Amino acid sequence: QVQLVESGGGLVQAGGSLRLSCAASGRTFSRYTMGWFRQAPGKEREFVVGITWSGTSPNYADSVKGRFTASRDIAKNTVYLQMNSLKAEDTAVYYCAATLVRGGSRTWAEYDFWGQGTQVTVSS
Asked: What is the mean pLDDT of residues 93-120?
């Protein structure tokens, strides 16, 4: 079992930055690849980035490439999502999730555990 708790969301102006955190716990969480997804009202859940605990280069969605940076702190059992140059279209609830799919997945249905989500609102 893996427990995930996100934090760091909020309201920011376009062009600003936020950093999301996802604290993981559980006996075998290190086996999982972590992912960040987001879901805007009326839209499907969208892949943002995947990152492994072993250090494989993060895999970004084209919509965030060059603006968002995923990282992890193994000692703190935490993954981060640094979001820069935010746009109004980045407004969504952001979720972190864990999957056993080797190398991660861009498909939300392949993730086994989810956090509760954190709201990010970007005002234009």
From this structure: 94
